[in-house]
TrEMBL record:
Belongs to the metallo-dependent hydrolases superfamily. TatD-type hydrolase family. Keywords: Hydrolase, Metal-binding. This is TatD family deoxyribonuclease. It comes from Henriciella mobilis. Transmembrane segments: none annotated. A divalent metal cation 1 binds at residues 5, 91, 203. The keyword Hydrolase applies. PANTHER family: D-AMINOACYL-TRNA DEACYLASE. GO terms for molecular function: DNA nuclease activity; hydrolase activity, acting on ester bonds; metal ion binding. GO terms for cellular component: cytosol. A divalent metal cation 2 binds at residues 127, 153.
Length: 258
């Protein structure tokens, strides 16, 4: 299995990261993508990847922190992406739920990341919350200027955004949210997305799946995300679904398998 979104530099893992990784490997997780949420955290995240043969990393600025990196250039992102272990741009995008950064700052940040993705050919990891229409508008506008690979991570958006993103060839990652009792709308949308466009993530330490909801999430719980996805698609073999998602992820993150 490939956990395509782990926040291993989070404070929640400060005391026992090696044990967390060992449990994940024992549970069948063979690859991890460590996510960069702030550009000033990039070296911390990259160090984790360099120290582990089965971990890769991204480079980017989460929309919450867009206000802190208004001077970040496309060139700085592209330069960081030259590292052999850096295989994706982001996470980036739009989040209007909390409003930690102004809309204009988030949009500017998003567009800079898109340009870095276009220049490098690396997948763009998109976080979107309560911003479906504008996210789709920006992706379509930028795609007309030149294509780039898209991943809508931890997808909880609506059907319209999913359909518009699919038209751009996007992939979608799913998390433990699929197993939540109150996530019927999310499951309904994911059920319409072809399995060959879906990959798995935990987004740990957040969003622990049932039966671990309320606890710190770990990559070792990824199989429960696969089980929830398998149930949606009427598949009995969660490991088969996990294998399909792993192949999808390796198709998307070409730098890992090249």
């Amino acid at each position: 299995m490939f956990d395509t979104h782990v926040n291993l530099h989070a404070e929640a893992f400060a005391d026992d990261l090696e044990a967390v990784l060992a449990r994940a490997r024992d549970a069948g997780v063979t690859r991890f993508l460590a996510i960069c949420d702030r550009f000033d955290n990039y070296h911390r995240v990259a160090e984790i990847a360099v120290g582990n043969a089965d971990i890769w990393n991204s480079v980017g600025v989460h929309p919450h922190y867009a206000k802190d990196f208004t001077g970040l250039s496309v060139e700085a992102l592209v330069e960081a992406a030259e590292d052999a272990k850096t295989v994706a741009i982001g996470e980036t995008g739009l989040d209007f739920h909390y409003g930690y950064s102004a809309e204009a700052a988030q949009v500017d940040n998003f567009r800079r990341h898109i340009e870095a993705s276009r220049k490098t050919g690396l997948p763009l990891i998109v976080h979107t919350r309560e911003a479906d229409d504008l996210t789709a508008d920006i992706l379509e506008d930028e795609f007309r200027r030149g294509p780039f690979p898209i991943l809508l991570h931890c997808y909880t958006g609506g059907q319209a955004l999913a359909d518009r993103a699919l038209d751009l060839g996007a992939y979608f990652s799913v998390s433990g949210i699929l197993s939540f009792k109150n996530a019927k709308d999310v499951r309904a949308v994911i059920a319409t997305i072809p399995l060959d466009r879906v990959i798995l993530e935990t987004d740990c330490p957040y969003l622990a799946p049932v039966p671990f909801r309320g606890r710190r999430n770990e990559p070792a719980f990824l199989i429960h995300v696969a089980e929830a996805l398998a149930a949606i698609h009427g598949e009995e073999d969660a490991l088969h679904v996990a294998s399909v998602c792993e192949e999808n992820a390796l198709t998307l993150f070409k730098k890992i398998s090249s």
